[in-house]
Every structure is written in structure tokens, then in C-alpha cells.
Write a structure and sequence with these properties.
With about 130 residues, this protein is an all-alpha fold. About 65% of the residues lie in helices and about 0% in strands. It is built from six helices and no strands.
Length: about 130
Amino acid sequence: MNNRNQQLSKIHIAKKDLALDDDTYRALLSRVTGKSSAKDLSPLEAAKVLRELERLGWKPKQGRAKPQPVQDRAKLVGKIGAFLAEANRTWEYADALAIKLHKVEKVDWLNPEQLRGVVAALAYDAKRHGRRQ
């Protein structure tokens, strides 16, 4: 995403966060830049609009976004698969752990937090049997 698109995204997020209705938002754009649509803003004008939105109380979120749950799940399922392969066990073993730990019939149905529990159980099992972790 280029800088201009990032600026426009932030402007629209700020509009939503500040609960600005469309008329108020367009009036703000017009007052600050003389334009009524964010798509017509130059990068300098977009920066001015962002400064004005911050002056009005909008605070941009800092730091990196949290990992997407789907990506997080994929990594955890991959770890479970690696532990199972190292122990020469099948996915039915992991399903049995899901039932024992979380009362859920299939690993596929677990959320990321529950998957971490299965990973921890398999890591403990690997340590107990002297396998790599």
C-alpha cells in the first residue's frame, strides 16, 4: 500500500472513529483543503486533514496489527502436525487430545487459544519421551 493510500485509509478510519456524519466530514475536508472528496487530495492535503482530525481528538493506533487468526491457526496446526510426525502419531491422536483438553471432537474445530493448548500438550509429551521440541 503506498503512502497516499495509507493516508486515505487513516482519514476514513478517523472519520469512523470520530463518528463524523458525511456532511460534517465533507465540510471538514472543504474547510481544510477546499475539496469535498478524499480521493482528490494530494499527499500534502491528506496530511493536513489527518492533523486536523488529530486536533479534533482522533488518536491513530500505534504498533503493528495483531496477526490474523487464520495465519495464527495455520502456524499452530503446522506445529501440531510436526509434533505428530516426530512422534509417529496420527491426527486421531490430536483429535483425542482436543476431546480430552477442550471437549471438542476435532482439532479442526479448535480456536487458536485451544490449539495452543494442544501444542503445549504435545510439547510436554515430546519432552517426556526425549524427542525434539
